[in-house]
Structure formats: C-alpha cells, structure tokens
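question for whoever is on the cluster today: can someone run the full assembly for these? two chains, 461 residues total. i dont have access anymore since they changed the login thing
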Amino acid sequence: MSYYFAIIGTQDNPLFEYDFGTSKQGGDGIARFTEQARQLNQFIIHSSLDIVEEVQWTNGQMYLKLIDRFFTSYISCFLTASNIKFLLLHQPPSSSSSSGLPASSGASTLTSSSSTTLGQHPPTSTSTSSLSVIPSLSTLTGGGNSSTTTLVGGGTSRTSTSIAANPTSPQTEEAIRNFFTEVYENYVKAIMSPFYKTNMEIRSPVFRARVAAAGRKYL
Amino acid sequence: MSNHLPASGGNGSHGVRAGDSGLRYPSNGKTIYHRPLNRTKTAELSKAAFAYLFAEMVSYAQRRVTGIQELEKRLNLQGHPIGLKLLDLLLFREPPRTQLRPLNIIALLHFIKINIWTHLFGRQADRLEKSSNPDTPDEFMIIDNEPLVNAYISVPKEMSQLNCAAFAAGIIEGVCDGAGFPARVTAHTVGDTAGANNGSGGGGTGTGAAAADGEMWPGRTVFLVKFQPEVLEREALIGNKS
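^ ran it for u. tokens below:
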C-alpha cells in the first residue's frame, strides 16, 4: 500500500505534500510509486477537488471518507472548518499504476478484484522478506510489462496487510480517520503561529516529522 | 513517539539548528507543535493587559490614516486573520460529536454568537437578528450591549462615527470568510445613522426593543453582517435539496 498525502489550500493551491508506504505488518514505510505515478498522483488529487466541492455542502462532518476513485487509486478527504482540504490518495500495491492508460489499468483492477478472494490467507513468516524485494522489482520494471508485474505484486500484497487489501473496508476508513485527526491537530498548531497566514506553504520540518509519525502509527 | 526534532542539530545547551534551512528552534526543544491546543479553564488573559494592548493597536492604526473609515478598515484588517484561525481552533476544541462545519448562515452565526464570543469575551453575544427589510435579506445583525473592546476606549466628539469594535467586526469577518461565507462586517454604535437605519428597517418586535434599550446600554454595538450574493444563492440551493 502506497500513500500520497496533500494539504490543499482555499485557492486549490498545495500547502504540503508527503508520500509514504504502509508501516503495518512488515511494511517499510516507503512509497512504491513509480516516477510517472508520482506525477500522475498530483493530477488525480487535483481532479478530485471537484468532488470535494460537491460533497462539502451536503455533509457537515469534517471527515468526508472515500470521495473519489481513479482506477486503483482511492482518495479520502478531510475538510477543515476553514476550507483546507486534506487529501489522501491510497493505492493497493497490486496496481501497476505507472502507465495510467485505461487498458492496462483496467486489467490491473480486474486482478485486484479477483485476488481479493485469494487474500484471506494469513501472512506467512517469509512474506516480510519477499515483500521488500518484489514490489521494488515491480517499481523498477515499471510500465514496461505491466501485466506480469501486476500479477507478481498482487500475489504478495494480498497477504501484507488488512488495511491495504481493501481500501473500502471500515477498518481502513477508521485508520484514515485517525490519521487525519492527528494531522488536523498538528495543522491547527501550525496555523496558531502568528506568522502563518492562510494558504501559506507549511515548511516546518517538525510538522513533516509529525505527519510521518501519524502515517507510521495508523497506516 | 513523535516528540523528536530532526537529527541534524545536536547540542542542547543553546538553540538547536536545523542543517540547511538556518531555522532555529527554542533552546528547550519545544516548538509550537509540542504545546497542547486545549487550554485550561483558568487560562484567561488579564483585562488590563488587553486594554493596554488594544489602545496601542488603535493608536497604531490611527497613524497615517486620513479618515474614520480608513481607521475602521485598518482595525478590521487587524482582526481578520484572528477570525480565520479562531474558526479552526474552536472547532477543534469542540467534542467530536458536535465537530461540524457550519453549512448554513444560521449555524455559522450561532457559532459566532456562542463559541467565538464565549472564547473572546467570556460570555455570549446578546442578540442575533435578521434584517426584516425585504430589500436586504443578506443582512444579519449580531448585537452586543457592552463590547469589551470598547470598555476603555473613549472616542472624541469630532470622531463620534468611530466604533473601535471594528476590530471585533474584523474577527467576525474572518470567521465568515474562512467558513466559506464571504461577508462584509461593520460595527455600528446604535443611535448613529447606519445602525438606526438598519435597526428600524422592519419594525419587528426585536428591533423595537433594541431602540428602547438604547438608553440603558449607551455602548450597544450592532455588528452588521452583509453576506455576498453568492452565499444566499447557495443557501437557497441547499435549502431546496434537503
């Protein structure tokens, strides 16, 4: 499971971004996005801002849950009172995600859905070691032969973590809620600085460390 | 768990320095992120200190201004960022059950009347009114009988138009803007022309009483909240849906 987290200001301007991988059940906390996917993520997040605007006036909750989906990328949203959006893109590791072409991504969606049924096996002891090797392999090969990498990645990832396995489950929802709540607390602290003005980029290394810690703790 | 600073700085005796940015941390290593957001019940600011600082703010704003309007605008601008930040802070302090973003004008004004006022002045605002004049459905009034900000401000006769509660109006404006309800907020002493016009516009029971109490509360201030047209448009749309 790879995550891309962004804070978007009121003018749809990015204030903060951070990508990380899962730390649950042997994950090493490193995002498995390919170079292309990294750039694509920003577009996906940006396009889901439209959905946020649709949802935000129908629901007074801050946590808007899963709001958008782009092939195998799922976007969860948290909206603060002053209209700052926290967007978390999460991607189960089965996806090839690199090319973003409808054909290959469609295929990867298929494999992910079919492997969900296989995914009930408990993680084996060897899975941790194989985990760290194979996904990095698939990142290396990237979009070249996406069909094979999808299969390999999907096979190992199913056993990696329950949160990663199904992005729409209540457990995932709850984990993301906890993550957002902790980031929100730190965001409020950040804006309490008298020198901070709305829509300023958040550069504080302490803030970044805190977001990273929240990611390690919950996701 | 997360209470660590970046590993670049080492010596704790004087300020820790982060490698490349030249950023300095306090010598005890505690940044704004290490302090709790929930204040203790008794953590109130002394009124004298506030009065002193506010008097300084007014005289600072008064420098290099040409008229009363400009002075009020400056006071308004000083309050605006406070409102933006208070909105997030006070909603954060709400218990999770009621941690809802205000979605309509009434919810927003209630939040201002109750939460913002209690936080700033230790009590709720005295009254909330909607303009009953059909020409101005976008105007709402928050009424404070005795604004704390004006307690130690004496306005000279030749500046009788001035109401230094423009600062509090700026805070309200910041809250409204932040919540996605862009508005213009102005402070009027009741009895002066603008306040009287808006107050007597409809002649509802509330406004009639407001005029009568005018003598009892000489400092009574009306915060006139005038929302932008798009806010009312959206309000109508949301109302139709639900």
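summary bc i know u wont read the tokens: DSSP finds seven helices and five strands in chain A. The interface with chain B takes residues 56-58, 60-62, 79-84, 184-193, 197-198, 203-207, 209-210, 213-214, 217 of chain A (CB under 8 Å).
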